[in-house]
Every structure is written in structure tokens, then in C-alpha cells.
Amino acid sequence: MKHEGRMPFLCVTCGKGFTTKNSLNCHEKTHAKIKGYVCKECNLGFSVASNLRAHQKKHHEGVRFYCSQCTRAFITKCSLERHELVHTGIKEFKCGSCKAAFYTNKELLKHQRYHQGLRLYKCDQCFKTFFEKHHLTIHIRVHTGERPYACKVSGCGKSFTESQKLSRHMKARHPIIL
């Protein structure tokens, strides 16, 4: 079925199609808002084990390079070197269309997409477009109902689609705990 492009197993909540019943079952857990898989490093919750594993691999495994200026750690030396530019305060890459400046050429190129109107990332469900991939990732949670950032304060029960929204919630509702 995968090679034929058919997706006979449809989610009744959001309409997303899957090639296998097992894939549909895993997906449906994201709608249940039950985060049975919790990262032991940062307490972030996931409804599907494979999402937890991907998170751990991306954020916690293989960290070998530590910034001497702050607490950040990186998997590659290149990532560390790019980060260390932040501590210099020198933004060498300047936008020709506005006064914005950046630490890396990659950041400048990403910024220039806004001036050019290049929305490279499109939602497969509603076709809304985005300038940055992480904005699409956050948007997709509107369709899946996934809210991976949960407040850990006993009895609160709030969860959020973005880590920044959880941080804002903690500052506003639980400032003593911070």
C-alpha cells in the first residue's frame, strides 16, 4: 500500500490518512493528550514512544561540546562555534533590505526569505504556508491536538503547543516555583 500511495486508515479526529492500522493507532494517541512517555532528562511528555526517542536523540544524546561561557552543550563542534558567536556580540552579516544583523550567514539567508516572501513550508492539511519549518511544526499541532509542553505543578493540568507558552504560563501563574 505504501508504494501505491493509498492511505486507507483515516483518523476520525483530524482526517489524516495512514498506510497501516498500527500507524493510525500511534497517531491517535496524540489526540488523547495522555503523555505516557516522559523524558528523564527534561520531563517533557510524549504520547508516542518514537517521538520521545527522536527527542532524546536530538536533544540529549551525543553531547560532547560545552560552551565555556554558559551552560549550553552541543553535539557538533560546528554548532558550538556558531553558538559562541553570540557571546562576542558581533553580528557580521547585515541585511541589505533593513537594519537587521546576524551572527551567521545562515541566519541572514533565513531572514531574507521574509523580504522575498518565500514561504517554503506548507501544511498538508490546510495548505497554510510558513517561512520557517519550526513554525509549521507548531502549526501542525492545531490539527493533531498535540500539546507536548505540560505544566508540572501539581493540580494545574495545563499543557501547551510551544515551550515559550509554557514559560509564560509559569511566570504568570506559578512565579514562586520558578
From TrEMBL:
MF GO annotations: DNA-binding transcription factor activity, RNA polymerase II-specific; identical protein binding; RNA polymerase II cis-regulatory region sequence-specific DNA binding; zinc ion binding
UniProt keyword Transmembrane helix, yes or no: no
A single cellular component GO annotation: nucleus
Swiss-Prot/TrEMBL keywords: DNA-binding, Metal-binding, Nucleus, Repeat, Transcription, Transcription regulation, Zinc, Zinc-finger
Major site of localization recorded for this protein: nucleus
Record bears the keyword Transcription regulation: yes
Pfam families, per the entry: zf-C2H2 (PF00096), zf-C2H2_6 (PF13912)
Domain of life: Eukaryota
Annotated InterPro entries: Znf_C2H2_sf, Znf_C2H2_type
Protein's cellular compartments: Nucleus
Sequence similarity: Belongs to the krueppel C2H2-type zinc-finger protein family.
Protein name (Swiss-Prot/TrEMBL): C2H2-type domain-containing protein
Species for this entry: Ignelater luminosus (Cucubano)
